[in-house]
């Protein structure tokens, strides 16, 4: 029987095929096991956190001081919290403290995240063991919040427009590095100088806020003022011709006034100097100027009534003839002008229309004051020597006798000594008037 080659035997071929398939399958499985570290003796620990964050996937790196010490095995959810399962390298496990802190941070702005283990300041030094749990992990959320807020913006942006803007920005900044560096250095110098003034700057900003609130409260009044200013401006615009004429006339007046003062300046100075005593006197009597004018106004009806119908309607009282000549004994003695009773300081108390009368005289106008003045007796009291006489019939003998009696009483002579011409002169004046001889 001829000898058959081993490779030509079907059973051998089948066996070799099975071995080849087994080797290929073993290689694939070994590759998978090595990649997934199926046969590694990793130390399992967990991290509990409220959120694992975006872009933290299985097999992500676990680093300690920048050295890879493990990987993220899986991420699960339990009781509303994220449970991050870590597989630590058994060779690095003794170097990791049990009270280590874990941070989930990104490698780049948009890159994959990893777990960063950081020892605490006062570490116990006890190494972490399998099954340990980092209950709370401080996870930075600023970058994640930025990405979350940036996502709608990036979605809304047109990539072509964004590329155009970034290209223009790149072209603008190209070759400006030295200028930008100098500007940043200058800004840094300014900030260093301003840092000691930060409290004053904060205080100024606070005061600026108070001032802004004050202006805010006053804005209605400011608005009203501005509206009124607009109205005033419109009025001035509408009447600019009159305003221009006013300015021209004012300039002419100023020129005339300048010429007047140049010509008569010394006279004005002399007038001012000579007027000073008069003005000082008026200053002393200034409290009475107003009420004197009021008194004159009150007297005007009585004056109009006295001279009504073009005639003098008066009652004349003649005092008896003095038994002696006027001498120094009759000189009035003026009391001190203190403003009180018995004083001659300026006052309007005796003017017509005031609350003081002859029966109720004003303070300082009593009989004692009249006696001090050398007059004596009550003000306004006169005892008539004869009854009032009314001159009525014009040109008669009775009228002539009455006129002579009145003239004789005023002259201090006998009626028979009065010439007839006096009756002709005084008769028309006194005719119809009531005269009392006292």
TrEMBL record:
The chain crosses the membrane at residues 12-35. Keywords: Membrane, Transmembrane, Transmembrane helix. Residues 319-349 are annotated as: Disordered. It comes from the Bacteria. The keyword Transferase does not apply. GO terms for cellular component: extracellular region. Residues 322-332 have a biased composition (Basic and acidic residues). Residues 43-119 form the Mce/MlaD domain. Signal peptide: none annotated. One of its GO terms (biological process) is biological process involved in interaction with host. Residues 124-341 form the Mammalian cell entry C-terminal domain. NCBIfam families: Mtu_fam_mce (TIGR00996). This is MCE family protein. It comes from Aeromicrobium phoceense.
């Amino acid at each position: 029987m001829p000898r058959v080659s081993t490779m030509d035997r079907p059973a051998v071929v089948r066996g070799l095929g099975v071995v080849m398939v087994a080797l290929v399958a073993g290689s694939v499985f070994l590759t998978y096991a090595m990649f997934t570290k199926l046969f590694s003796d990793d130390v399992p620990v967990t991290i509990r956190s409220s959120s694992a964050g975006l872009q933290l996937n299985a097999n992500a790196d676990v680093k300690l001081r920048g050295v890879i010490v493990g990987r993220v095995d899986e991420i699960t959810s339990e009781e509303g919290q994220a449970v991050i399962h870590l597989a630590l390298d058994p060779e690095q496990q003794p170097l990791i403290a049990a009270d280590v802190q874990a941070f989930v941070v990104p490698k780049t702005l948009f890159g994959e995240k990893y777990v960063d283990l950081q020892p605490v300041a006062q570490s116990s030094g006890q190494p972490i063991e399998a099954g340990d749990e980092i209950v709370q992990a401080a996870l930075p959320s600023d970058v994640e919040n930025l990405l979350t807020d940036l996502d709608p913006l990036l979605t809304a942006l047109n990539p072509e427009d964004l590329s155009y803007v970034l290209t223009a920005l790149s072209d603008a900044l190209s070759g400006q590095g030295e200028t930008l560096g100098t500007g940043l250095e200058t800004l840094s110098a300014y900030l260093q100088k301003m840092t000691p003034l930060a409290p004053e700057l904060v205080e100024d900003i606070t005061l600026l806020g108070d001032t802004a609130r004050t202006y805010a409260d006053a804005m209605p009044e400011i608005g009203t003022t501005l509206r009124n200013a607009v109205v005033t401006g419109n009025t001035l615009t509408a009447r600019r011709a009159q305003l221009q004429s006013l300015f021209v006339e004012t300039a002419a007046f100023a020129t005339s006034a300048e010429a007047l003062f140049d010509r008569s300046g010394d006279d004005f100075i002399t007038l001012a100097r000579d007027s000073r005593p008069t003005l000082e006197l008026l200053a002393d009597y200034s409290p009475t100027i107003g009420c004197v004018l009021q008194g004159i106004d009150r007297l005007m009806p009585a004056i109009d009534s006295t001279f009504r119908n073009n005639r003098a309607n008066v009652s004349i009282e003649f005092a008896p003839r003095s038994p002696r000549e006027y001498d120094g004994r009759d000189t009035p003695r003026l009391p001190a002008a203190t403003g009180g009773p018995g004083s001659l300081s300026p006052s309007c108390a005796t003017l017509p229309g005031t609350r003081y009368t002859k029966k109720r005289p004003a303070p300082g106008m009593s009989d004692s004051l009249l006696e001090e003045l050398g007059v004596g007796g009550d003000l306004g009291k006169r005892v008539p020597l004869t009854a009032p006489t009314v001159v009525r019939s014009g040109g008669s003998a009775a009228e002539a006798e009455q006129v002579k009696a009145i003239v004789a009483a005023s002259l201090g002579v006998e009626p028979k000594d009065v010439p007839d011409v006096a009756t002709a002169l005084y008769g028309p004046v006194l005719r119809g008037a009531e005269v009392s001889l006292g």
